[in-house]
Amino acid sequence: MEPFLISVMIAATPFLFAATGELVAERSGVLNLGLEGMMLMGAVTAFAATSATGSHLLGALAGAGAGVAMALVFAVLAISLMANQAATGLALTIFGIGASGLVGQPFIGQPLDSLAKLPVWDATALTRVITGHDPMTYLALAMAGGVAWFLYRTRAGLALRAVGDSHGSAHALGLPVTATRYAAVLFGGAMAGLGGAYISIAYTPMWGENMTAGRGWIALALVVFATWRPGRLVAGAYLFAAVTQAQFYGQALAIPSQFLAMAPYLATIAALVVISRDKALTRANAPACLGRPFRPDR
Amino acid sequence: MRRTLAALAVGLVATSAAAQELKVGFVYVGPIGDFGWTYQHDQGRLAVEQAFGDRVETTYVESVPEGADAERVIRQLAASGHGLIFTTSFGYMDATAKIAEQFPDVKFEHATGYKTAANLAIYNARFYEGRAVIGTIAGRMTRTNRIGYIASFPIPEVIMGVNAATLAAQKVNPDVEMTVTWVNSWYDPGREADAAKALIAQGIDVIMQHTDSPAPVQAAAEAGALAFGQASDMRRFGPEAHMTAIIDDWAPYYVKRVGQVLDGTWESTNSWAGFAEGEVVMAPYWNMPYEVAVEAADLERAIRLGRTHPFEGPVVDRDGAVQVPEGETASDAHLLSMGYFVQGVVGDLPK
């Protein structure tokens, strides 16, 4: 059981990073489908920076920076030029897949030392599961907690939610709609970059083309799954990671592998059904202006 | 969704532009940067360019999903003046056969399939020969008598690898048990590493894989277990864990076949080459006692010379049925339709 739970902690981390960032962007009313592309650029940049400097910290920062750069392209197109957000996001993903492959060519087949793990507190089974991970695992959790605090306990968070729910009213109240959305999207980019960096310098320290293998799309789904609430997002990320990891541990228990392979999606659908039964709740949390460009009329 | 996007992301990449006698197209299932299956096919393509210089032009299309997109990509290559097209994954079989019928003047080569035509040849490598060698090493090296196998999909190619390794391991260590975990993917470093960790957590101390990334080797190294590389030499990813790797070397075959098209002697053939032809190569042996390395090298030589075969009878499946009787050797047809696990394999076999 312990190795299983430890694996869950690790596997959930990239989802936590990317989905927390996307949650903030969506809460401001911007749907960025470019998560996968931003994660890949983050992954390749973090790998390159870490292997060049030997510092995982610089690598992670570079990964976040690459995510921000990608998000900036998206923001200019989708916020300032008011391009269709879904199409721009898809283009960003496609661009990210190609560009990361191109940039990453010299790093194929290169190993890298894994991000160092913190010491384990060997007191109980619980502490052995929770402690002893690398710092990024905890950073991801801290960021999710920080975002929850920011959204619900600060004035700026309230303003961000207002911008996402009704950009017209927010604008009329004098809130800086465009600047808020830029900030939210760039934050989302940094988090996606960190999620990608986690994959290439900590989870499996290597670079391989398309190595995120669709995790960006799962993170996107998690945001909806969580009905745009950070607490549920954390639960969803761990739940999804647990069901995925159960595939590998469950096969030893002679559970049919096809059943295990479909279990994560089954769990997702079940959760979505339960959540959508409460329509008022879903509507209360979904940003009303999600995906709609804002054109100030005065 | 992801597959569709990958298809959209695919672009044609032409690598040289001068006037040539022959344009050769390659369709890859993964990115050339996978450092595994597709990477090795691309090394073969580069060897063709090296061997023939300006006489040939090569084109490749990577990350082509198996299915309708493959047909479109293959047709596009055939229609754009390519004289020889290699399609390098099992799932391209029907698409390749269909396009081959529509373009009788274009020569096609499909890897790991079984449909042929006058202008459609098939080729594969006897990876199970390498599996027998690593099975022998694993049987000698495991201390817990439990070997783990990270498998992609339940197709004959993968199943015969599991069986070849198990049979060889049992020959040197009758108590050995092979645990198979399916990851339902050819390439997903994260899941491959997770599968390796899960196997090691169950008390398995030697990991082998039939997936394409070096992540399992890395995970094994981190956990103090032993591992084998797949498709390329992956020693760098776990120098203290990597014992050897089964390397796919397509270069001899690609160079030979392109040469045959150039001098007009190409024929539709069914090639299944292994150690003897240099298409399957073992990486250098590490992290094992000298005697084990010698035993592995001896088996490699015996297979190369045809003195032994990884599937010599008796081969008994998990239900106790004799699949290959004593004194006989499994035929190629038997191997290519293998749908059973031998005794000693633990884990589900999806039908």
Condensed summary:
In chain A, 73% of the residues lie in helices and 0% in strands. Chain A is mainly α and 298 residues long. Chain A starts with a helix and ends in a 13-residue tail after the last helix.
Question: Would you mind describing this structure in some detail?
Answer:
Chain B: InterPro entries: ABC-Purine-Binding, PnrA-like. Chain B: This is Nucleoside-binding protein. The complex is a heterodimer of chains A (298) and B (351). Chain A has 298 residues and is mainly α. Helices cover 73% and strands 0% of the residues of chain A. Chain A has one domain (2-109, 119-285): ABC transporter involved in vitamin B12 uptake, BtuC, CATH 1.10.3470. Chain A has helices spanning 2-27, 35-53, 56-80, 85-104, 125-130, 135-153, 155-165, 167-172, 177-203, 215-225, 230-250, 257-277, 279-285. Chain A is globular and about 60 Å long. By secondary structure, chain B is of the alpha/beta class. Chain B has eleven helices and 16 strands. Chain B is globular, with a radius of gyration of 20 Å. The two termini of chain B are 26 Å apart. The chains are: A mainly alpha (298), B alpha/beta (351). Chains A and B meet through helix 1, helix 4, helix 11 and helix 12 of A and helix 1, strand 8, helix 7 and helix 8 of B.
Number of domains of chain A: 1
How widely separated are the two ends of chain B? 26 Å
The most extensive interface, with participating residues per chain, is:
A-B, 46 and 51 residues
Strand order of the largest sheet of chain B: 1-3-2-4-5-6-12
Net shape of chain B: globular
How helix-rich are the residues of chain B, as a percent range? 25-40%
Q: Sheet bearing the most strands of chain B, described?
A: 7 strands, mixed
**Treating each run of at least 4 consecutive H or I residues as one helix, how many helices of chain B?**
11
CATH class of chain A: Mainly Alpha
Helical residue percent band of chain A: over 70%
User: What structural class is derived from the secondary structure elements of chain B?
Assistant: alpha/beta
Mean pLDDT across all amino acids of chain A: 91
List SSEs of chain A in N-to-C order. HHHHHHHHHHHHH
